[in-house]
Design a protein that fits this description.
Elements (H helix, E strand, L loop, with lengths): L2 E3 H17 L3 H13 L3 H20 L9 E9 L3 E3 L4 H13 L11 E2 L6 E2 L7 E7 L4 E8 L1 H4 L3 E5 L5 H8 L11 E8 L2 H11 L6 H9 L6 H14 L14 E9 L6 E8 L5 E6 L26 E4 L5 H5 L6 E10 L2 H12 L12 E3 L24 H10 L4 E4 L5 H10 L2 E4 L5 H5 L2 E8 L8 E15 L6 H13 L8
Parallel strand pairs: 1-3, 2-6, 9-10, 13-14, 14-15, 15-16, 16-17
Antiparallel strand pairs: 2-7, 4-5, 7-12, 8-11, 9-11, 14-19, 17-19, 18-19
Helix pairs in contact: 1-4, 2-3, 11-12, 12-13
């Protein structure tokens, strides 16, 4: 019989969330490096290179892989013979571990969790509470999985109650293109099949905790070994999703997913519940066991497992943001790489909503947006000599409903974010002869190195959602939507799907 001490458990949780904030799983890095070698799309290859370089920088510098350091998810398998030497509940101990991890002064992580989600949406300031899943199992030890899931990938979660005769593969192929690129591919698809609706969602999430091993299935299939139905399904979905040509960051390319994970569970004869949850380029999870002998000791990975890549940010057209004109913006072309220099403003969901409210009341805005560019970002707080912590882009489609207002009423002429824009935003961009620029999601620390100064200039009470002014030097971005409304997130995948070979997708 093992006795798990309260302090050992809390510190193990804290150490695990710090660890996964800056270390990718090595299996993911090896799979991504292999995808980089295979990739033939220049835009996708460049995006993967940025993610790999960022990953190594974070492993060396112990800073977050992504500015969205996630909502904390913990899976616990508690042995039936385990005893607790604790005064707090298990949920309270997990929350204290999360609190320590996210407030660690040497590597402070971004607090993204909001209480009262349908009301005031007030930041809890320490990223608590965690979402904890429990399973009671035989044995006398505690198995723990800690994962940090970013909002961009979580928001793309899908569920459907299929008819028993429907094709799961067809549903996946129909659904993945609707997810856009806000989940930061290339990543991993987790699929849960069976049980009940909530069980299938949990299976999909839990499946993402397994190592990347699709290459082993491919090797077994190549040797003619017999695969079970779930393994066959994984391979089929993997090959067909990649044949969609969506590619890294949705720019079009050979690799959209690095693996497909599936867990299933018996279900009702009338049902076929299916859930799908993606893991993004900031794949973060750690696994450990506690047996009463003390807190976990997580060994750092070998940096030799990372490819020796460098990213040259000097290739591109330099743009002086401080003298930018609408005519210059209108001359940018889809897919063109720009190097931004000068001052940009930031703003995301909460700031846009407050701007909308102030404009409705004819109130003066805290900053002048005329002829300025806004960056959709919520940065991590700086530590030591940093001017800003990791500051990668957030999903731009969440700002689509504000785009017409910002372009028409504030004088804004450009936007920076990640992934595609929707029809309404593209229409507004075309109408106002503006442009949307894309930075790579999953390269937050690399992007932050281009930021040379930072100060809050509006809505300070919003914390990481405040309006900042960044001074940047050679910040690399790609023109994703030009003044004519041409989107590389539409043209790129279409081109690469045609190159790879189209897939017939049935209507469910």
């Amino acid at each position: 019989m093992s006795t798990i001490r309260q302090e050992d458990f809390i510190q193990s949780i804290a150490d695990a969330f710090q660890y996964i904030s800056y270390y990718h799983p090595v299996d993911y890095i090896k799979a991504l490096a292999a995808a980089y070698q295979r990739e033939e799309s220049p835009a996708a290859k460049d995006a993967i290179a940025q993610i790999l370089v960022n990953s190594r920088m974070c492993a060396e510098g112990h800073r977050p892989l992504c500015q969205d350091t996630g909502i904390c998810v913990v899976f616990l398998k508690v042995g039936m013979n385990v005893r607790w030497d604790a005064t707090l509940s298990v949920q309270e101990m997990v929350n204290e571990g999360v609190r320590r991890a996210y407030l660690d002064p040497d590597n402070k992580l971004r607090a993204s969790v909001l209480a009262d989600p349908a009301g005031a949406r007030k930041n809890t300031r320490d990223n608590t509470p965690a979402v904890v899943h429990y399973e009671i199992v035989p044995g006398d030890h505690l198995e723990v999985i800690c994962a940090a899931k970013g909002g961009g990938s979580e928001n793309k979660s899908k569920f459907y109650a299929l008819n028993p005769s429907d094709s799961i593969v067809d549903w996946v192929l129909k659904t993945v293109p609707t997810m856009g690129a806000g989940w930061c591919p290339p990543g991993i698809l987790g699929i849960g099949i069976g049980g009940t609706p909530e069980k299938s969602m949990l299976l999909a999430k839990e499946s993402l905790m397994a190592p990347v091993d699709i290459h082993e299935l491919q090797a077994r299939a190549g040797r003619g070994e017999r695969l079970n139905r779930v393994e066959e399904l994984r391979l089929e979905i993997f090959e067909k999703v990649n044949a969609l040509g969506i590619g890294a960051q949705g720019l079009g390319g050979l690799t959209t997913v690095l693996d497909v994970k599936i867990l299933d569970y018996p279900t009702h004869a009338a049902s076929l519940p299916v859930a799908m949850i993606p893991n993004c380029a900031a794949t973060r999870h750690a696994h450990f066991h506690l047996d009463g002998s003390g807190p976990v000791k997580l060994a750092p990975p070998d940096l030799e497992d990372w490819p020796k890549l460098t990213y040259d940010a000097s290739q591109g057209k330099r743009v002086d943001l401080d003298s930018l004109t609408p005519a210059q913006v209108a001359a940018w072309r889809p897919g063109e790489v720009l190097l931004l220099n000068g001052k940009i403003l930031t703003g995301r969901d909460a700031a846009h909503q407050r701007i909308q409210q102030m404009l409705a009341k004819n109130e003066k805005l805290p900053v002048d947006f005329r002829n300025r560019v806004i960056y959709y970002v919520g940065p991590v707080d700086p530590v030591r000599d940093e001017v800003v912590g990791p500051a990668g882009p957030t999903t731009s489609t969440r700002m689509d409903k504000f785009t017409e207002m910002m372009l028409a009423e504030t004088g804004l002429i450009g936007m920076i974010g990640k992934a595609e824009r929707g029809p309404a935003a593209i229409a507004a961009i075309k109408k106002h002869r503006s442009a949307y620029l894309m930075a790579v999601g999953g390269a937050a620390y690399l992007v932050a190195k281009a930021i040379k100064a930072s100060r809050v200039v509006g809505f300070e009470d919003l914390g990481m959602e405040a309006i900042y002014e960044f001074e940047v030097r050679d910040m690399p971005v790609t023109v994703a939507v030009d003044a004519n409304g041409i989107s590389v997130h539409e043209t790129g995948p279409r081109e690469w799907q045609a190159r790879i070979g189209k897939i017939p997708v049935k209507t469910i």
